Amino acid sequence: MAQIKKALFRLVALCLAGAAAGCGGGKGDISGTVNYQGKALSYGRISFVSESGKHEVFASLIRNGKYSVAGVPAGEVKVTVETFKPQSTIAVLKPPGKRSAEEMMGPGLKVAKAGEGDPVPPPPKGARYQQVPKKYANPDQSGLTYTVIKGPQTKEFNLE
Question: CA nearest 72: which of 82, 59, 91?
Answer without folding.
Answer: 59
